[in-house]
Design brief:
The chain has 4 helices and 6 strands, in the order E-E-E-E-H-H-E-H-E-H. With 183 residues, the protein is α+β, with helices and mostly antiparallel strands.
């Protein structure tokens, strides 16, 4: 048997004798067999795996749409929530004895945190790790929480060792935020 140039890998949509449709994947090779041209074909029924792939693709598309919708809704709710939080903080500064301001502010923070996680989940990305200077990460966290700390008359003094090692960290700058959530 003498081999010839391979033919392309193909997928066929076929009909069985009972009328049902199935998908057949075949690889063919032009050959000479006993001196005559022939086609050697090897194949298999791929109907089940094709259906599973299509189902996964449809689910993935639905989840992507759901993620986009969730992100849009979360943004629309967070914007007025930020205004409400600002007005509550202003009212609290004018009337610090009122006991309900702290409760309202903590509940707004809780809602904000939930929507923050929803936004984070709505935008899935591949994890990328980079070597980073731990001092820079700490400075980012301090910058992020500076306003909250100022409201409570808390100051942070930063002091670092000169020979601190680099650490392997997520490249996403938003990740220090969960560290600050408990403050």
């Amino acid at each position: 048997m003498e081999k010839k140039k391979p033919l392309s890998h193909m997928e066929y949509k076929m009909k069985r004798m009972d009328g049902s449709i199935f998908f057949y994947e075949a690889s063919c090779l032009a050959v000479k067999f006993n001196g005559e041209k022939a086609v050697l074909s090897i194949g298999k029924d791929v109907t089940v795996s094709k259906e599973e792939t299509m189902n996964l693709l449809q689910k993935s598309e639905k989840l992507a749409i759901l993620g986009e919708m969730s992100a849009g809704i979360a943004h629309e709710i967070r914007n007025p929530l930020t205004s409400i939080k600002g007005f509550i903080q202003l009212a609290k500064s004018e009337n610090p004895q009122h006991k309900y301001f702290e409760i309202v502010l903590s509940e707004i923070e809780r809602i904000n945190s939930i929507f923050g996680e929803l936004l984070f989940l709505a935008k899935p990305t591949a994890d990328v790790f980079l070597f980073k200077d731990i001092r820079m990460i700490i400075e980012d966290v301090v910058t992020l929480i500076h306003t909250q700390l100022s409201l409570h008359n808390i100051q942070i003094k930063e002091a670092y060792e000169w020979d601190m090692p680099m650490i392997l960290s997520f490249s996403d700058r938003r990740l220090p935020l969960p560290l600050c959530a408990g403050l």
